């Protein structure tokens, strides 16, 4: 994987999720305040199978250094990571998936930064019902994509996350069990930052300046994430009057009784 391609795919992932939210093909998680989100994972992956399957991809991981007055996140420089999964079971087809994970907890990013291969398992489950990015796949029922990423070894400490995922799917059937890992891609990090840039933790804590070559892509991703998070806040604002109305009805019912 070349760095330019990984950056391009990350931008496409955010754009695909943003467009799906605007078109109401995805439902944004209701969020009261932008500062509930502490970080983001942006992932593009390809899933394919002919009985024995695989899923692989690349992505960018950001921590939020602060939220700006215009609602945009001030992001750290990104960690560039790779995902590799294998599958056992019955599967046939091809699936291109664009995902954005909204993290309320930085523990998966911290685990990733520490250099250990992050186990992909059940304790940090990010799952999305995928929608076609383009074309008419309405006749295909099996467009369900599930990705599980664990940043912790202890299930009790599982990170909270929302994943928004869309898919350009030609997966005809998938009854497989997937397992694999996520890890920082050292070669792409060296290509992006040079061989000496400090530590991965320094990157996430905002101590490493964003390289010039990454600025256009990260600028586009930041704008897209601002739009995605705005959709989450708008979903909360629309939901809140309904909740208040339900409370009023409940109070009236209790008083009547």
UniProtKB/TrEMBL annotation:
Molecular function terms from GO: phosphatidylinositol binding
Classification via PANTHER family: SH3 DOMAIN-CONTAINING YSC84-LIKE PROTEIN 1 (PTHR15629:SF2), SH3YL1 PROTEIN (PTHR15629)
Protein name per UniProt: Ysc84 actin-binding domain-containing protein
Lineage of source species: Eukaryota, Viridiplantae, Chlorophyta, core chlorophytes, Chlorophyceae
